[in-house]
């Protein structure tokens, strides 16, 4: 039951993504046109302190008109190491520089439409470097007790699936 991408042509692009139209053959031999969004990898990071609090950002997403808690995240620049990008994004968006990063998980948030891969990391420590360079990315940055994360997700306070998955994994790793 495998779909086969016979060819693609670009219909739009900018520095963050490309929209392509694919000619796809279905398992029954029929064909269809399918739009595909090609994106650069995304890297995200957070830290957990000695009190088992996780560093999160409270932000508004205008596309869905929703507020929620997230990890600092952004696109990986051409040639940039993914973990280095995660550390850079965390410092730029929170003012906290993570220590050694540990891979948490990699997810494909919408693999029926896009090839985006989100690589999520965490650190057991971080140090304050000053006010965030990209403070406009969020309304506030807070250390939240990791033990309350599942309830936050259940209440819809972490609406992004990639962030919810990462936080549940981190909760499991740290608290069992």
TrEMBL record:
Highest taxon, organism lineage: Bacteria
Q: Name one GO biological process term.
A: ribose phosphate metabolic process
Gene Ontology CC, one term: cytosol
> What's a Pfam family in this record?
NUDIX
Disulfide bond: is it a keyword of this entry?
no
List the Gene Ontology MF annotations in alphabetical order: hydrolase activity
UniProt domain Nudix hydrolase: residue ranges? 38-171
Cofactor(s) recorded for this entry are: Mg(2+)
Q: Any idea which UniProt keywords this protein has? A: Hydrolase
Zinc as UniProt keyword = no
Q: Which PANTHER family match?
A: NUDIX HYDROLASE DOMAIN-CONTAINING PROTEIN, UDP/ADP-SUGAR PYROPHOSPHATASE
Question: What is the recorded name of this protein?
Answer: NUDIX domain-containing protein
- Organism per entry: Streptomyces globisporus
């Amino acid at each position: 039951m495998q779909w086969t991408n016979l060819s693609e042509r670009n219909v739009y692009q900018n520095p963050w993504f490309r929209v392509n139209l694919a000619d796809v053959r279905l398992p029954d031999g029929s064909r269809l046109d399918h739009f595909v969004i090609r994106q650069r990898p995304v890297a995200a990071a957070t830290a957990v302190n000695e009190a088992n609090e996780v560093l999160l950002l409270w932000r508004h997403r205008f596309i869905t008109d929703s507020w929620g808690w997230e990890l600092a995240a952004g696109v990986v620049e051409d040639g940039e190491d993914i973990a280095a990008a995660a550390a850079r994004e965390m410092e730029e968006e929170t003012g906290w520089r993570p220590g050694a990063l540990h891979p948490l998980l990699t997810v494909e948030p919408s693999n029926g439409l896009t090839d985006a891969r989100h690589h999520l990391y965490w650190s057991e420590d971080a140090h304050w470097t000053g006010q965030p360079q990209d403070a406009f990315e969020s309304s506030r940055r807070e250390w939240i007790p990791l033990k309350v994360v599942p309830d936050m997700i259940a209440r819809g306070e972490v609406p992004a699936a990639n962030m919810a998955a990462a936080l549940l994994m981190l909760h499991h790793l740290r608290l069992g």
